[in-house]
Every structure is written in structure tokens, then in C-alpha cells.
Amino acid sequence: MSGADQDWEEQSPERLYVITGGRSGASGHTTSLDLVTLIVSKAGPKPGMQPEQASIMRLCHSPLSVAELSAYLQLPISVVTVLLGDLLADGRVVARAPVPPAQLPDRALIEAVIHGLQKL
User: Fold this and answer.
1) Within 13 Å and on the Cβ side, how many CA atoms surround 67?
2) Which Pfam families does this one have (predicted)?
3) Per-domain residue ranges for the chain?
4) What's the per-residue H, E or C state across the chain?
5) The pLDDT value given to residue 34
6) How many other C-beta atoms lie within 10 A of the C-beta of residue 70?
7) Tens place of pLDDT for every residue, the chain, 120 residues?
């Protein structure tokens, strides 16, 4: 089998269908996952786990975003979110929202600080 045929096989719709069990969402888990949601595994993979889920467990010993997992696993985001949903439902991983952007301080406060510094 040539390299091009092998690449097609790895990303074929049939393979992705098998990985997700034909589902487009996780069974029994409603947490919304976006591209920047951080995933951390609670333990290592268990024997008999689906290979892709075991890879997620190994990769997430330190926090990784859903987008990073998709890139490392070379799987579409939609497939990764199904796998993560199952792991979340089983309590094997934790999803954490990224740190929100800092709020800008009040403009009046900034002006008061500038005026105070100018008087020094």
C-alpha cells in the first residue's frame, strides 16, 4: 500500500465512524467543549481502552487544549470531542475553562494614577 493510500485509510470516514461508534456527541455528558477548553487526565490509561482514548490519557498528564489534542492525534475536532465526552462521563479526565482575559481597569482610576504620578 502506498503512502497516499495509507493516509486515506487513516482519515477515512469509515475509520472515524468506528472510532466514535457512529455518534456525533458523547453519551450522557453535556459539558460544552470548545477549542480552548483545557483537558487534564486523572490517571493513566487502563488496559483494554480504545487506542485513541488511551492516547488522550497519556497526552493529558499536563493540561492540553482540545485543539492541541486534535492536532497531536491527527483527528478532526468533532471526533476528539466525542472521545473526550466519553472520558468526561467516565470521570477519567477533567475539563477546565481557560483563564478568562483580564478586565481593563476603570478609566477614571487610570487617570487618577497618572495625575498622581505627574505630581511626584
Assistant:
1) 5
2) DUF742
3) 3-119
4) CCHHHHHHHHCCHHHHHHHHCCCCCCCCCCCCCCCCCEEEECCCCCCCCCHHHHHHHHHCCCCEEHHHHHHHHCCCHHHHHHHHHHHHHCCCEEEECCCCCCCCCCHHHHHHHHHHHHHC
5) 86
6) 19
7) 444 444 445 556 666 656 666 565 555 555 678 898 999 999 888 888 888 889 999 999 999 999 999 999 888 888 888 889 889 988 899 998 877 777 877 888 889 999 999 998
